[in-house]
Specification:
The complex is a heterodimer of chains A (637) and B (260). By secondary structure, chain A is of the alpha+beta class. Helices cover 37% and strands 14% of the residues of chain A. Among the domains of chain A are: 134 residues, Flavocytochrome C3, Chain A, domain 1 (Alpha-Beta Complex); 115 residues, Fumarate reductase/succinate dehydrogenase flavoprotein-like, C-terminal domain (Methane Monooxygenase Hydroxylase, Chain G, domain 1), CATH 1.20.58. In chain B, 33% of the residues lie in helices and 13% in strands. In chain B, helix 5 packs across helix 8 and helix 6 crosses helix 8. Classes of the chains: A alpha+beta (637), B alpha+beta (260). Chain A: It comes from Rufibacter sediminis.
Chain lengths: 637, 260
């Protein structure tokens, strides 16, 4: 298989405009003859569904929550980047492009990232027009803050609830189309399979989470916008229901999976407190604007923070990276926190935490100003830990947060299955080996509002309007397979719970395929995952039937997929004999413990093809060509 | 075993949990004993422990809605000891922690109770009526593209901040569950006020309030008699001022209605 990224010819800055001119258009009267399925209603899905419906297509949208507004985009805190240069501090489309490429450690496609930076400015306009109440200055204009990996202030925000406000904007646009009847919304409905007819994506099979009804939906094209798969680690900052099921099942139907091992471990999360823990809570990276990260200089210093004098503290990020200080990119900040804890300088009872201290900021700006900026985050912190971060430093530790990997897509965001698209976090496209803060919201909305509406038209215009009935054998077969999987799960009646398996998988992934990886550990993990998967299918305990709200059954289906995906992630991490961004292979590091890339051999996207249960997947490479930026070792010193 | 809070002792609790097979079945409170609950656990983690326990005993686990567990998605919705989202003010069920309870406590856990929120199973209810209120007008009618530059219309910071406060509603429905009339006024007013305050929301200001209120009535939510339990139980502090604003908007619109 040859991976054709379909990057348009011509100079970087002109590619998107030229492409928009060259794509085929569906004439307005014909649009209503095409049906599009959008799975997911987060930023990527809701924006696409609303925009496509505005254009005149018939849209069916799906989510597993009870309302489209509850997609996990709602939880994004810190902000969204855009190259508006409202601050006059030297930002530009090119700089945002450059920062993103560099932040991603040169493992993303130039053309995609440039387009992302270009449309970023339109996103902010769109959101303001929808009534999104971004933070403003006293003069009434929009406010900005800075974020990790950038030296300009280009991040737009709505207190610590930016994702919520952006998603509510997209949700309102979606609601308007639901009211017009152009979008049919299917909440509490989970996609369990992709249906292909004549080699093209033509629909999906779903299970209704209240009634258990297994049903088919047909369309001319399918867009997956189902978010990230960080829950493969069990503990992550993702929502409890975040899953890989939709993209994994599409992968098994032929969509290649790109860079699965590229996982982002976020440096500022509330540390784990016990084995019962069900999820980890992020404390937005924006806190690093004002908070200072430190640990005691001495190993085993057990004094409370306020009794450790200034000169016995190690502000290790400021010390090692004087020019970016606390605002180094996430992978760098996380790894350094881990190093400090590995050295025995961690804090708190578990010693797996570092301090994030606001004392100086409060002294400088006053309590009120700090509370205005971060009030809701401080509240959240004190609710969870029972401690007051205005008075004592926060304790933070890295946690799994985002997955840069995902379904491989070309410039048009189409997967290797014709007619199947992937947008938002579930594709691999824009962030390389590490995503910069405030860039996921940007990507989700760029994909949904401004990219897919053009590129999907190009595909549809070349395909007939004739519909496929769900009585078609391909649908019946897929339904039967889904039903068979459900029956198989229900018939095991073993002794271990789904959560128990999920936690076990999470431990393997975190220990061997987490913040630091090595070949030996990865080999071991591969065996362990296989064993665990076998045991799952022999011994998992699920009660009840399909024809009811059955939470255990839902979870079991998702964990079954994680147990397969986990192995592919390990495989990918083993294959990539270099360190880059969030992928840190201990064998490949500089003397200063920074990631050591191997550009000669690994400047490619690793796209994996599924070949059958327990079969070795096949690797396809998309070579990355850098025509505009020079590959250098990232330096934030 | 946690944080900086070493003297936290595990607790034993009695739970009375509403069990109902589906929307048609009758429900009842079942009593369960639960042991060794750490005060550092969240309330829903305590429910996870209960469910693991039930599952291994061959008893159907308790169904409850939740997703983000960060207090932002609005999915969690438990009525705990007679209060929507439990005893702690300004806190969603998922952000409630067991340190608010004591060893030996009995905790009663029920679903939201309101006509427009039928129980689906155990503690899960159908709150889609709230989505339909939003669909009736909770938006500004702009298509993607062709909008002015974001800084073209300055908005005073005070107004933007107030609009933001109203916009933080998480659509959990606690206000309805807390109200003896089952009114959705606080919820509806939050969106009406947010958009009425912003310059972008002016064009559809009148039709919006009329259509959203009409939908609210159609869904069978009760009338607002200004008791204020909604705002007292709202986990994100949506203010009663929004209801006052909705009323002004509604009366204003009724004089010069543009709904023709
Ligand atoms: C706590 C937190 C804070 C963050 N903060 C920021 C930030 O400040 N800035 C930033 O840029 N990024 C941030 N991110 C990242 C960013 O929020 C996400 O990457 C982004 O919102 C993902 O959007 P999405 O539309 O791709 O997916 P999601 O919002 O996750 O939506 C997924 C959708 O798919 C549906 N779905 C999933 N599986 C199925 C299935 N099988 N069947 C049917 N439907 C399904 C879900 O119901 C949901 O509607 C943060 C992430 C987290 C977790
Ligand atoms: S107003 Fe408050 S209580 Fe009511 S739905 Fe919104 S957030 Fe929940
Ligand atoms: S689970 Fe999302 S608000 Fe409680």
């Amino acid at each position: 298989m040859i991976l054709d990224s379909k990057i348009p010819e011509g100079p970087l800055a002109e590619k998107w405009d030229k492409h928009k001119f060259n794509v085929k258009l569906v004439n307005p009267a014909n649009k209503r003859k095409y049906d599009i399925i959008v799975v997911g209603t987060g930023l990527a899905g809701a924006s696409a569904a609303a925009t496509l419906a505005e254009l005149g297509y018939n849209v069916k949208a799906f989510c597993y929550q009870d309302s489209p507004r509850r997609a996990h985009s709602i939880a994004a805190q810190g902000g969204i980047n855009a190259a508006k240069n409202y601050q006059n501090d030297g930002d530009s489309v090119y700089r945002l492009f450059y920062d993103t490429i560099k932040g991603g450690d040169y493992r993303a496609r130039e053309a995609n990232v440039y387009r992302l930076a270009q449309v970023s400015v339109n996103i902010i306009d769109q959101c303001v027009a929808q009534g999104v109440p971004f933070a403003r200055e006293y003069g009434g204009l929009l406010a900005n803050r800075s974020f990790g990996g950038a030296q300009v202030s280009r991040t737009f925000y709505a207190r610590g609830q930016t994702g919520q406000q952006l998603l509510l904007g997209a949700y309102s646009a979606l609601n308007r189309q639901i009211a017009y009847g152009k979008v049919k919304m299917y909440p509490r409905t989970e996609m369990l399979d992709l249906v292909m007819v004549d080699g093209k994506a033509r629909g999906i099979v779903t299970r209704h989470l209240i009634t258990g009804k297994i049903e088919s939906h047909s369309a001319h094209a399918v867009i997956l916008a189902t978010g990230g798969y960080g829950n493969v680690f069990f503990l992550s900052t993702n929502a409890m229901g975040s899953n890989t099921t939709a993209i994994w099942r599409a992968h098994k139907k032929g969509a290649l999976f790109a860079n699965p091992c590229f996982t982002q471990i976020h440096p500022t999360c509330i540390p784990v407190s016990g084995g019962y823990q069900s999820k980890l809570t992020l404390m937005s990276e924006s806190l690093r604007n004002d908070g200072r990260v430190w640990v005691p200089k001495a190993v085993g210093d057990n004094r409370p923070a306020d009794q450790i004098p200034e000169d016995e503290r190690d502000y290790f990020l400021e010390r090692k990276y004087p020019s970016f200080g606390n605002l180094v990119p996430r992978d760098v900040a996380s790894r350094n926190a881990k190093l400090a804890c590995d050295e025995g300088r961690g804090v708190g009872t578990t010693k797996l935490a570092v301090y994030l201290d606001f004392a100086d900021a409060i002294k400088r700006e006053g309590l009120e100003k700090i509370s205005q900026k971060y009030g809701n985050l401080f509240d959240m912190y004190s609710k969870i830990t029972g401690e007051n971060p205005y008075e004592q430093p926060m304790r933070i530790y890295p946690a799994v947060h985002y997955t840069m990997g995902g379904l491989w897509v070309d410039y048009n965001l189409m997967t290797t299955v014709p007619g199947l698209y992937a947008t938002g976090e579930c594709n691999f496209s824009d962030h390389g080996a590490n995503r910069l803060g405030a860039s996921a919201l940007m990507q989700g909305l760029a994909d949904g509002y401004f990219v897919i509406p053009y590129t999907i038209g190009d595909y549809l215009a070349q395909n007939p309007t004739a519909r496929v009935e769900t009585s078609h054998p391909a649908f019946k077969e897929a339904e039967a397979n889904v039903q068979a999987d459900v029956n198989r799960l229900l018939s095991i009646n073993g002794t271990r719970t789904v959560d128990d398996f999920h936690k076990a998988l999470g431990h393997i992934m975190w220990d061997y395929c987490g913040m630091a990886r090595n070949a030996e550990g990865l080999q071991f993990a591969k065996q362990e995952i296989r064993k665990l998967r076998d045991e799952f299918w022999r011994d998992v305990k699920i009660l009840g039937t399909n024809e009811e709200l059955n939470v255990t059954l839902e979870k079991a289906g998702r964990v079954a997929d994680f147990l397969e995906l986990g192995e592919l992630m390990v495989e990918d991490a083993l294959n990539r004999n270099e360190s880059c961004g969030g992928h840190f292979r201990e064998e490949y590091q500089t003397p200063e413990n920074e990631a050591l890339r191997d550009d000669e051999n690994y400047t490619y996207v690793a796209a994996w093809e599924y070949t059958g249960p327990n079969q070795q997947p096949v690797l396809h490479k998309e070579e990355l060509k850098f025509e505009n930026v020079k590959l250098t070792q990232r330096s934030y010193k | 075993m946690a944080g900086n809070n070493p003297n936290s002792k595990p607790m034993n609790l009695t739970l009375k949990v509403w069990r109902q097979k589906n929307s048609k079945a009758a429900g009842n409170l079942e009593t369960y004993q639960i042991k060794d609950i750490s005060p550092e656990m969240s309330f829903l983690e305590m429910m996870d422990v209960l469910n693991e326990d039930l599952l291994l005993k061959g008893i159907d686990p308790v169904a409850f809605d939740h997703d983000c567990r960060e207090g932002i998605c609005g999915m969690c919705s438990l009525y705990i000891n007679g209060r929507a989202h439990g005893p702690e003010r300004g806190t969603t069920t998922c952000q409630l922690h067991m340190r608010k309870f004591s060893d030996g406590d009995t905790i009663t856990i029920e679903p939201w109770r309101a006509g427009p929120f039928p129980v689906l199973k155990d503690l899960c209810t159908d709150r889609s009526a709230l989505d339909r209120i939003q669909q009736a007008g909770g938006y500004i009618s702009v298509n993607t593209g062709g909008v002015p530059d974001a800084n073209e219309i300055p908005i005073p910071k005070t107004i933007a901040d107030k609009a933001f406060d109203a916009a933080t509603c998480i659509q959990c429905g606690a206000c309805v569950a807390a109200c003896k009339n089952g009114s959705a006024m606080l919820f509806t007013s939050a969106k009406v006020s947010q958009l009425a305050m912003l310059p972008q929301g002016q064009v559809e200001r009148k039709t919006r309030v009329e259509n959203m209120v009409a939908q609210m009535d159609k869904e069978g939510f009760g009338a607002c008699t200004n008791i204020g339990s909604c705002a007292a139980e709202c986990p994100v502090g949506i203010s009663l001022e929004n209801i006052a604003m909705l009323n002004r908007e509604y009366i204003g619109a009724s004089f010069t209605s543009e709904n023709v």
